[in-house]
Model the fold of this input.
Amino acid sequence: MKKKNTFKHWIGRLHVLLGLTSGLIVFIVSVTGCLYCFHDEIKDVTRPYRHVEQRSQPFVAPSVLFQNAKKQAPANKPSFLVYAGKDRSASVYSSGESGQLYIYFDPYTGQYLATENQKTDFFVIVEYIHLYLLLPPPIGKQIVGVAIIIFVVMLITGLVLWWPKRKHDRKMSFTIKWNSRWRRVNYDLHKVFGFYASAIALVLALTGLAVDYNWMHKAMYNVANVGQNYDKNEDVHPVVDTNIIVPDLHPAMDIAFAETMKRSAHGEMFFVTPPFSKSDAITTGAYAKSLNYDHQDNYYFDPSTGKLLKSLPYSVKSSGMKFNEMNYGLHVGQYFNLPGKIAAFLVSLICASLPITGFMIWYGRKYKKHPGRQGVSVQKKVLVKKS
Done:
C-alpha cells in the first residue's frame, strides 16, 4: 500500500482544497483578462473616432478642450485630459450627474467627436469584473486579491506535484497523450498546460496583486531599488500655498502643457490633470509611446501661475519607480508589444481552463465508479434473492 503521509500527498490535498475554494474567481478573472488583452486593438477597429488625420500643427490648448467638454456635459466636472497621439483623438474624462464619461475631440481643432459612457462600455464592464467582480470596489478588490494569492500558492504546489519522480517519467510530464481516454487527456491538459504557463502566469498574478494591494506595490518598488541610491521623496507631490485663490485654472494649465511639450518633445502621448484640492498642483506628463503607460515624464505646476514646481523625467527615476510604471504593461503583455499580448492572452486562457480541468480530475476521483465493487454488490443481491 502507498503511504498517505508523504510530502506530495499533503501538497496535493492543499492544492485541491485551494482550487475548490478559489476556482470560480480564478476562472472569471482569467476570462476577463483574455477579453481585455486586445481591447485597444478592437476599439481602434470598431470606434473610428479614436483616430484623426495627423497634421503639421500644434494641439489646441487644454483650456479649449476642458471648456468644450463642459459644453457637452454641463452637469459634470472635467477632471482629466489625454492627448493620445498625433493621429489619435484627445479625450476628456468628465464625471457628475451625467455619469462617468470620456468625451473625444479632434486635438487639432477641438471639434467634438464622440462620448463614451463608462457605465455601458463593454470593455469597462469587463475591466470592472476583472478588478472587482462588479461588486463595491473595497469588497470586490479583497475577494479578487485573496483569490490571486491562493492562485500563486497553487502555481507553486502545482509545480511540486508536476515534478516527475523518475527520469523516465519526465517525457510524460511535458507531453499530452491525445490518443488516450478523455480522463487521461484532461489530466494531461491540467498538468502539462499548467506547467508551460506557470512562469508567465506568476508574472500576471504578481502584477495583478500590485494593482490590488499597496503593500505589493511598495514591495516591488523596494526590491527593484535594492543596492541603489535614489531620492526617497521622488514620488512625493509638491504642495502649493492653500491661501492663494485661483480664479481661473485655464491659463496656468495652458502654460503647464506648453512647458510639458517643450521638455518632453520626444513624447507621443500627454496628459493634463487639474488640482483635486486647494493644496494640489497641476499635474502633467508625457509617455514615450501612444497608449503605453511606462517610460513617463512627470511634471508639477503652480495652479495660479503655471510655474514649474517639480520635474521628474523618466531618465532620473529610480529602478523601483520605473519597475512600478511597467506594471500595467507587464500585466497585459503590452510591454513586449504584440508577442507579449499574445502570450498574456494564451496564458490567461490556460489559467481559465485550469479550474475546469482540475475540478474534473477531483470529481472523477471522488466519484469514480468501481466496476469490481459493483459486481460484488450485484452478486450479493442475486444470492439474497435465491435464498
User: Anything to note?
Assistant: The longest helix spans residues 7-37. The chain has 13 helices and eight strands. Confidence is low (pLDDT under 50) at residues 380-384.
